[in-house]
Design brief:
The protein is of the alpha+beta class and 257 residues long. The chain is built from 5 helices and 14 strands. The strands form 4 sheets. Strands 5-8-9-7-6 form a 5-stranded antiparallel beta sheet. The protein is elongated, with a radius of gyration of 18 Å. The structure holds 2-acetamido-2-deoxy-beta-D-glucopyranose (7 copies).
Amino acid sequence: MWLYKHLRHKSCHFTKHMAVVSSRLLFLLFAVLIPIQASALLPYLFPPTCNNNSGNYTSNSTYKTNLNQVLSSLYSNTTIGYGFYYSSYGQNPDKVYAIGLCRGDVNPDDCRGCLKNSSTLLPQDCPNQKEAIGRCDQCMLRYSNSSIFGIMDTSFHVLVCDMQNVSANYLAQFNDDVNILLNHLTSEAAAGGSLREYAAGSAITTDFKKIYALLQCTPDLSEQNCINCLLSAIAAVPNYCAGKVGRIVVLTSCSIR
Ligand SMILES: *[C@@H]1O[C@H](CO)[C@@H](O)[C@H](O)[C@H]1NC(C)=O
Ligand SMILES: *[C@@H]1O[C@H](CO)[C@@H](O)[C@H](O)[C@H]1NC(C)=O
Ligand SMILES: *[C@@H]1O[C@H](CO)[C@@H](O)[C@H](O)[C@H]1NC(C)=O
Ligand SMILES: *[C@@H]1O[C@H](CO)[C@@H](O)[C@H](O)[C@H]1NC(C)=O
Ligand SMILES: *[C@@H]1O[C@H](CO)[C@@H](O)[C@H](O)[C@H]1NC(C)=O
Ligand SMILES: *[C@@H]1O[C@H](CO)[C@@H](O)[C@H](O)[C@H]1NC(C)=O
Ligand SMILES: *[C@@H]1O[C@H](CO)[C@@H](O)[C@H](O)[C@H]1NC(C)=O
């Protein structure tokens, strides 16, 4: 059972038993979240982040035209099979940089479909801001008027916990086993190379229960920056998540589940 807050209905498919809250709502977590058995196929977009400090554009501007160009060059590039898209378009001061990243287990067609949907939704949700990030379950789309390639950004976007408790008898062992698994997968993801920094795996913990984890960096990060980013994500365990069976942490440059 995941804590789930339905913030909006959008056309990006949300297929897993999961939940999400906006970082802006985090302080309200106890007050606003409703526990439900999430099982239906929920169309869902993680709440976008519109950066109000990096300048605004108008709908008939050169920036808008360049933005449309760069986004379509991402989702229409059929030669990329590894789920990481990066491009820029235009001349300063209207040059636009964009990154698209799909979850490591998403196939190229679904990946492009997710990026295409996000390319429509994100500029609608952030209609003036030159810089924005949107996330669906399967992909992340990000654009800016400054170069964002290769720069680690650990600003915080989403943190969700599965509110089911680990049995107190097993908690210490469970935490140890989770940390061992996450550390192991951190090294593996970071060593993945410049096209894909992704690792997923599982381990058996006490009582023969299985734990699963998925870790990912945008692969433009160096190995060391990927490690640093993932360590920040792993360290983000607020009190209300302690002792719970699941956790999702999404930062700008990396994420863990
Ligand atoms: C940006 O401004 C909009 C409209 O004023 C606001 O809704 C949004 O929360 C702001 N974004 C951030 C990241 O503060
Ligand atoms: C992005 O736009 C903002 C506001 O227009 C401007 O202050 C900033 O210098 C721009 N960044 C780059 C790299 O051009
Ligand atoms: C850009 O627009 C947002 C909301 O539309 C506003 O909150 C913000 O102050 C504006 N930023 C600038 C630099 O004009
Ligand atoms: C955009 O449209 C507005 C009003 O429709 C107009 O005042 C402005 O000059 C236009 N800007 C550009 C860059 O064409
Ligand atoms: C697709 O992306 C690759 C790698 O970034 C790039 O080399 C290629 O030119 C792109 N193809 C098109 C049609 O944009
Ligand atoms: C994109 O949106 C359409 C509906 O607008 C939906 O049918 C489709 O499944 C979405 N694709 C992805 C990958 O989310
Ligand atoms: C988990 O444990 C806490 C503290 O013991 C308790 O308040 C809460 O109701 C439990 N949650 C569930 C879903 O059992």
